[in-house]
């Protein structure tokens, strides 16, 4: 966490020079630019036709609708998305299963939480290596995706207990190593396990207890009134039942 704190301190020195994107600016240009890393099914992923879809995308589309503009989706790697794409003005908002943390909130503005999740351990179907948390960590090799809260939590909780961490820029590469037995487990978000079980029956499972619980938020530049606009959309969706319908569409296991 010290390394992350130093990085965020450096960003705090440079980020304020970027102007916050406002509702008025978005309405003037007629488009809301969403940055996302489309490798996190069912929240954001590329469909058969190549378009980015998912739970986050549908919520962002509702924010754009309430603003009276169209949604434009930009695919951005997670490392570049948070927070650089937002603070630089490359995108107006970011959604990619982004966890709300005090450290990140020093650099960007978050909406109210829109989804409660947890970081869990993904193992090969049947868990042939018998991995469990917190019982069997010492001597295990655990995969983490770079610049994610899973990596931060693993640095704090798993390394001191003797686990070896393998860092991946690409989450799919970590899954490939789990499937091949090259690592004992991969840390990922709980809905990912549900999605994997549906898409690839028998290939992956969850093992042990969750590492940490967390809330996802929509991300905006500091001082932007877009965060308040997004909160109004989220409140509308929940009051009307549309939020639950989106959960049923993308996340609730049938």
Automatic annotation (TrEMBL):
Residues 1-20 form the signal peptide. Residues 31-253 form the Ionotropic glutamate receptor C-terminal domain. Keywords: Signal. InterPro entries: Iontro_rcpt_C, Solute-binding_3/MltF_N. One of its GO terms (cellular component) is membrane. Residues 31-254 form the Solute-binding protein family 3/N-terminal domain. It comes from the Bacteria. One of its GO terms (molecular function) is ligand-gated monoatomic ion channel activity. Pfam families: SBP_bac_3. This is ABC transporter substrate-binding protein. It comes from Deinococcus sonorensis KR-87.
């Amino acid at each position: 966490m010290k390394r992350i704190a130093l990085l965020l301190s450096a960003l705090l020195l440079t980020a304020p020079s970027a102007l916050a994107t406002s509702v008025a600016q978005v309405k003037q240009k007629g488009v809301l630019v969403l940055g996302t890393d489309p490798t996190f099914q069912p929240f954001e992923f590329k469909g058969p036709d190549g378009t980015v879809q998912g739970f986050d995308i549908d919520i962002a589309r509702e924010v754009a609708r309430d603003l009276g503009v169209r949604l434009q989706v930009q695919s951005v790697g997670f490392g570049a998305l948070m927070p650089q794409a937002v603070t630089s003005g490359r995108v107006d908002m970011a959604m990619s299963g982004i966890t709300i943390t005090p450290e990140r909130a020093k650099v960007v503005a978050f909406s109210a939480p829109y989804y409660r999740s947890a970081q869990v351990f993904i193992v090969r179907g049947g868990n042939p290596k018998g991995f469990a948390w917190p019982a069997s960590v010492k001597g295990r090799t655990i995969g983490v995706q770079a610049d994610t809260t899973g990596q931060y939590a693993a640095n704090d909780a798993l390394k001191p207990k003797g686990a070896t961490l393998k860092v991946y820029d690409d989450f799919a590469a970590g899954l490939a190593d789990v499937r091949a037995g090259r690592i004992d487990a991969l840390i990922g978000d709980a809905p990912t396990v549900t999605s994997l079980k549906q898409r690839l029956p028998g290939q992956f499972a969850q093992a042990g207890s969750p590492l940490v619980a967390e809330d996802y938020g929509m991300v905006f530049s500091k001082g932007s009134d877009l965060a308040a606009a997004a909160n109004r959309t989220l409140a509308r969706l929940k009051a009307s039942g549309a939020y639950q319908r989106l959960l049923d569409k993308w996340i609730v296991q049938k």
